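Workshop exercise sheet. Pairs work together: one partner reads the sequence aloud, the other fills in the structure field after running the prediction. Swap roles for the next sheet.
Pair: D.N. / O.F.
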Amino acid sequence: MIATNTNRSSFSVGLYAAIAAFLTYTIIFGFRKSFTVCTFDGMQFGGFGYKTLLVLSQMLGYLAAKFYGIKFIAELKRLGRYKIVLLLVGIAWLAWLLFALIPAPYNIICLFINGFPLGMLWGVIFSYIEGRKATDFIGAALAVSFIFSSGFVKSVGAWLMLHVGVPELWVPFTTGAVFAIPLLLFIYAMEKIPAPSAEDIALRMNRVPMSAMERKAFLHKFLPGIIAAVCIYMFATIFRDIRDNFSADMWKEMGYLNQPAIFSKTETPITLIILLLIGSMVLIQNNRKAFMLSHVFIGIGFIIAGFSTYLFTKQLIIPYWWMTLVGLGLYMVYIPFNSVYFERLIATFRFTGNVGFLIYVADSFGYLGSVSVLVSKEVLKIRLNWVDFFSTSVMALSLVGILITGYAMFYFGRKSERQ
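Structure field:
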């Protein structure tokens, strides 16, 4: 009877935490990506597209936040986190107000100001849910929130622009106003999530702040595997960001203009499939088996992304199915790193520490890759349209991704066998 009650309690806490985390990060996304639905046609400065400069500025903000977050998130205390969330989101929203008020191109810097605080928030939110028996499911719900919210926020931004008449420059700030009150409600809900139980700690290890020496020791012990994982994640981040930031441009190139619902139509099924796949790993209590299985998910994701793109280039599938399938494949690679991969790595090798540190190590190089690709495309004056550029690159790097994923699985498998 006691065990049954404990299981029910654990399930209730996990379900509550999953819903709270999903809704909170969905709302946070409302302060981040609505500007990508705007195309800013004809606007160029210094020979570069205005929208590309905006995306690049925001990415540089994320990039700076990820490198700073390696230390900040690793050493994050558990008290007063709601104040940190409110402060960071408040700064990001203020940046959108300045973006609307300051004339172009001087308002480009506002995207950096917006990106830096938002880049810190993933680690803060994840700290509420890590180190639990149900973290796989909760983490999957949190991670898929930015698949769903990416399409949802774009749909809201497009609706405001098309049906309310909000000018492009005011779309991001107005979208933030729509999400402001719900944000307060869901942050309060996050604060009510109970701390990990004794059983959670026994299964997944205690999650505590990490000193610089502890972070260095962890990286030294697993350096080849961490490098492989970071490379995989970097590829996924590059293409997820291109798809996310320039999906409006790609839909336009493929003939889907002024269809706000198209963003949600592609992202909603991806959200549900990823949640089912990754969330089901909560059923696997053996940490090593779950960790190895995450590599299989990642490899299949590369296959789906690359093969669906090949079919699209041969005109064997329509744009809707291509955008859905390539998104599914890329998120099958991307989501495990933000939910189960590092969570199970720590549990498998019985380390005390926190997942946020590892996520921010991977994220820092992931965004460095995204920024490098965007800068190279502009500086080298590569004038492929976004559909051609994206599809060609996805096919090539999916093959490389499969090979690196196989190596990472072999490395960590041998390492865990020795232990």
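Discussion prompt: The radius of gyration is 21 Å. What would you look at next?
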